[in-house]
UniProtKB/TrEMBL annotation:
Keywords in alphabetical order: Membrane, Transmembrane, Transmembrane helix
The keyword Membrane is annotated on this UniProt entry: yes
GO cellular component: plasma membrane
Bilayer topology annotation: Multi-pass membrane protein
Family that this chain belongs to: Belongs to the UPF0382 family.
Organism of derivation: Marininema halotolerans
Transmembrane segments: 43-60, 72-93, 99-120
Name of the protein in question: Uncharacterized membrane protein YgdD, TMEM256/DUF423 family
Subcellular location: Membrane
InterPro entries named among the record's database cross-references: DUF423
Any Pfam family the entry gives: DUF423
Length: 123
């Protein structure tokens, strides 16, 4: 599915740009704890952007599956909620945003379960 390849590529660009910004632009401007949060957000962002690329290629090879598609959308949701909340929390210092982060983590987990079930059904 070209859409997941496009979404993966856009998110890879964003993950690299935001990771570099955190490493070079935020040093000395926010606390070490918030830098660590930013780094965690960028790391998960990059991993799951690669996963979106993988899903796009997987669909192109084995065909579309509602479970794979749902998994992809859940991974994108995880990027937005998990990484996004960490980015915003680091920039604003509003620690209450940390309550959103686990929802994004749950979206990642359920997304991977969907992909695993789809793979098992293909065997």
């Amino acid at each position: 599915m070209k859409l997941f390849i496009v979404l993966g590529a856009i998110n890879m660009f964003l993950a690299i740009a935001l990771g570099a910004f955190g490493a070079h632009g935020l040093q000395g401007k926010i606390s070490d704890r918030m830098i660590a949060n930013w780094h965690t957000g960028a790391q998960y962002h990059m991993i799951h952007a690669l996963a979106l690329l993988f899903i796009g290629f997987l669909v192109s090879k084995v065909g579309s599956s509602p479970l794979v598609s749902t998994g992809g959308w859940l991974l994108l949701t995880g990027i937005l909620l998990f990484s996004g909340s960490l980015y915003v929390m680091a920039l604003t210092g509003v620690k209450q945003l940390g309550a959103i982060t686990p929802i994004g983590g749950l979206a990642f987990l359920v997304g991977w379960v969907c992909i695993a079930i789809a793979a098992i059904k293909q065997l």
